[in-house]
Amino acid sequence: MFYNHLKILESEAIYIMREVAAQFERPFLLFSGGKDSIILAHLARKAFYPGNIPFTFLHVDTGHNFPETIAFRDALMEQLGARLEVRYVQDSIDQGRAVEETGPYASRNELQTVTLLDALAEFKVDAAIGGARRDEEKARAKERVFSHRDEFGQWDPKNQRPELWNLYNGRKKPNENFRIFPISNWTELDVWQYIQMEGIELPPLYFSHERDVINRDGVLLGVSDVVRPLPGEKVERKIVRF
User: Fold this and answer.
1) Digit-coded pLDDT (tens) for 148-197
2) Exposed, middle or buried: residue 195 (CB in 10 Å: 0-12, 13-18, 19+)?
3) Do both 217 and 154 map to the same domain?
4) Which domain holds residue 229?
5) pTM attached to this predicted model
6) Pair 156, 234 in one domain
7) Which of the four, 54, 114, 155, 171, has the lowest number of CB atoms within 10 Å?
């Protein structure tokens, strides 16, 4: 049974959360409304219950989010009694800090980095907690749980600090900061099993339901304010999940 394994991962993540609260002055928790950041919020509540979560939540809004995601975010923040700051990619574009992509597959995912770095500087964040996991890609497989960033927000994978057992070193120079990954050792399967074990609520987008879609090069895309049919594309009503 996976219960004991998940409890060990949970205990490790809670320990990391408490280390962040103890070592840093302005820790923020990066929240996207996805399952990994929802788990972080759940773990933060457990780590400091019955007290308040000592982290401000930060959402970098691409402007391409589904309404269900925003509604879920706001409801969860109210439930947690947490402070939420939202910064918008559109503002970065309007200010000339980022350039909007064009074309049928235009995305704002890469533009989020500009908005995020500006927000971290604005709030003088010294620790940004994120939901990245080592199983997601090769670069993250070698990244520390306490991942150091220089004054330019850059990570040097060839110059990482030793990270032995449960000893986490948060020492830094002025204007430097850390990315913190409490669920770095989790796998995708661990995430879903933990959601099941804890009965964690997710946005409805994670579940199949009827939605207007278009078929673009064999990929079903949900019709929205930012995804509109091109000439020759037909809107269909299908049961899908994202």
Assistant:
1) 998 887 888 878 888 888 899 999 988 899 999 999 999 999 999 999 99
2) middle
3) no
4) 208-240
5) 0.89
6) no
7) 171
